[in-house]
Amino acid sequence: MDWDDVRMFLAVARSGQILAASKRLAINHATLGRRMTALEDGLKTRLLIRRTNGCSLTAEGEVLLAAAERMETEMLSAQARTGRNDAAISGTVRIGAPDGFGVSFLASRMGRLTRRHPDLKVQLVPVPRSFSLSQREADIAITIERPEQGRLISSKLTDYTLGLYASKAYLETEGEPKNAEDLRRHPRIGYVEDLIFSQSLNFTGEVMRDWDAGFEISSAIGQTEAVRAGAGIGILHDYVARQYPELVRILPDLTIRRSYWTTYHETSRDLLRLRTVVDFIRELTVQEGHIFVSG
Question: 141 in a domain, yes or no?
C-alpha cells in the first residue's frame, strides 16, 4: 500500500469531506477523489460513503483508519528518531471531561496547544457523564475515579478538593451556619440524584445525612452559578469557587477530596497526537497543581 494514498485517506477520514481534505493537502479535489477510488479498487472494498455534503467511513474504512493511524505514528516516530523533529502533530482528539474541569480549567488553556500545533484539532466535550472510549465517543476521558474494566490506560492526574460555599450577599441576609446541623435551616443546592453516574459524585453524604436539596442541578458550573446568585449553600469545587470573590467558603473544616484521572483506550497508546494532548493536560495540572487542593 502506497503511504501517499494512506496519507490522503487519513486527511479525508479526519475532515469528513474530500473538498476540505484536498485544500489541506493542496491538491485538486477531483484528483483526490480519483485517488480514493483507486485506493478502494486496489483494496477491492468500499471505504467511503460519499454524499453531497461530505463522506463517512464504512466498516472497512474504520478498519483501514485504525491501521493508517498506526502507520502514521510509526512514520512520525521514525522521522523523530532520524532527526526530523519538525513532524506535524495533526488530526482530531476529543476530550471528554466533567464540566467543572472541562469548562473552568481546560477551556481557557487548550488554545496554547492548538497554537503550538496548527494542524491539531481538539474537541472538548465538557458534560457530566461517562464516556465510551471503545465506541470512540471520546479519545481521552478525564474521569473522577480509575476505571476498573476494559482495555484502558489510566493515570492519576491530580487530587482536588470541594467545600461548602455561599455568596457574601446571602450570608449578610441569612447568616452563616455554625456547624453541619445548622445547614438544615438554609436552602441547599445539589446534584439531580438520579442522574449521578458515579457514587464519587455523591458528595453530600460526607457533609450531612439527607442533604435534600431544594434546587438540584446536574452541572458543577450550574451549581456554582446558583450559589453565586444567592440561591443557597452548595458544595463546590475549590478551584472553581476561588475564581469568584463574591463566594465565601463556610465551615472550612468540612473538606471533600477526590481525584481526576486521564484515561484512554490501549489501542490509541501509540498515536502521537493523543500522547501530545495527554502530556499537555498533565503539564498544565503540574504547573497549576496548587489551585486544585484547598489549604
Answer: yes
